[in-house]
Amino acid sequence: MDRSGSPGGCGDLSDPTPLLDALLARCAFPPPGTAVTCAVSGGADSLALLVLACRAGCVVTAVHVDHGLRSTGADEAARVAAVADHLGARFEAVSVEVGEGPNLEARARHARFAVLPPDVLVGHTADDRAETMLLNLLRGTGAAGLAALGPSPRRPLSALRRHDTEAVCEAMGLVPFRDPTNADPRFRRNRVRGEVLPLLAEVADRDVVPLLVRLGDHLGALDEFVAQAAAKLDPTDVAALRAVPTVVAQAALRRWLRAATDPEQHPPDAATIERVLAVVRGERRATDVGAGRRVSRSAGRLHLT
Fold first, then answer.
1. What distance in Å separates the CA atoms of residue 254 and residue 269, rounded to the nearest whole number?
2. Is residue 206 domain-resident?
3. Does 40 share its domain with 150?
4. SS3 for 96-161, per residue?
5. pLDDT-derived band of residue 266, with 50, 70 and 90 as boundaries?
6. Residues 247 and 154 in one domain
7. Same domain for 85 and 184?
8. What CA–CA distance (Å, rounded) separates 167 from 120?
9. Dihedral of CA 139/108/156/74: which sign?
10. Which residues constitute the domain of residue 252?
């Protein structure tokens, strides 16, 4: 805390209430009195999540996860603990082992969420959603990937922008932790954030994040419609699969194969689904689908062995 009594503060502050209430009206927190857990790294987004969750009247527990990747982990946890105490929230610190190596971001994310409750609140904003959409597009994705990080009870800040969360921290006298890896060009997300999105904004002569978010909402609604239609199908019934639009058959097959293998893994890729559709159409008798599994057709049914 600084001399003014604010954790990580910056001196005398004007009343932050109008700003907090205006931003809170755009958030989706549960009713006052609801117990929630907030993942708080100490960055601007997660600190704003903590501040606004408390402002919403929730009974808040802030959890800081130290991945063991930086020597400053203990100091970051202490700063989050001070903010939580200042706001009247509970605090917990958790440590996980990640270690250097390939796919660092993905492994750190997996380790983090493995120790957090499944309903934990996170500080994802509209900017995070736009970045994720573009990353998924670069990897090759369908509607579900482009609808990623859509509105959810776990993402109450999804309608806010990154400048909103920074404004919350400034209004509350909080100094967010700046993760130095966020400027590392080795990580593709950083290049999307610092190069691709600014270039798209320059070419479009406008802020493209709202456009991407709106597209994600549309695709999410379409994906949900297709998913509901696919859920009504027997994915092993060849006649039923051939009677519906291809996109519905694809969704039904993807759901079936994912459930039959490992639901925690990525769903089967487009090439795999296309090979299974070739079996459905009678263009081939069987095909490998990975993980030592094979889909074959006999007597009008698909079989996974």
1. 8
2. no
3. yes
4. CCCCCCCCHHHHHHHHHHHCCCCCCECCCCHHHHHHHHHHHHHHCCCHHHHCCCCCCCCCCCCCCC
5. low
6. no
7. yes
8. 23
9. negative
10. 232-304
Residues 112 and 164 in one domain: yes
Nearest to 188 by CA among 267, 141, 140, 134: 134
**CA 25, chain centre distance (Å):** 22
Q: How many domains does the chain have?
A: 2
Q: What residue type is 138 in one-letter code? A: L
Of 188, 218, 246, the last residue of a domain is: 188
State residue 64's pLDDT score. 94
Alpha-carbon distance of 42 to 243, in angstroms, equals 52
176 and 58 assigned to the same domain: yes
pLDDT of residue 74: 81
Check: CB of residue 89 under 8 Å from CB of residue 8.
no
pLDDT at 182: 79
The answer to whether residue 280 is domain-embedded is yes
- The CA-based diameter of the chain, rounded to the nearest angstrom, is 79
CA–CA distances in Å: residue 33 to residues 57, 59, 64, 83, 157:
6, 6, 22, 20, 19
Q: What is the pLDDT of residue 6?
A: 52
**Same-domain status, 76 and 147:** yes
For residue range 193-242, list pLDDT tens digits in order: 999 999 999 999 999 999 999 999 999 999 999 999 999 999 999 999 99
Q: Is the pLDDT of residue 71 over 90?
A: no
* pTM summary value: 0.84
The answer to the question of residue 264 being in a domain is yes
What distance in Å separates the CA atoms of residue 280 and residue 240, rounded to the nearest whole number? 10
Confidence of residue 144 (pLDDT cuts 50, 70, 90): confident
CA angle (279 as vertex; 278, 282 as ends), nearest 5: 90
CB 158 within 8 A of CB 167: no
244 falls within a domain = yes
Looking at residue 150, which CATH number applies to its domain?
Answer: 3.40.50.620
Alpha helices (H) along 159-208: 162-172, 188-191, 197-204
Q: How is residue 41 written in tokens?
A: 């790294």
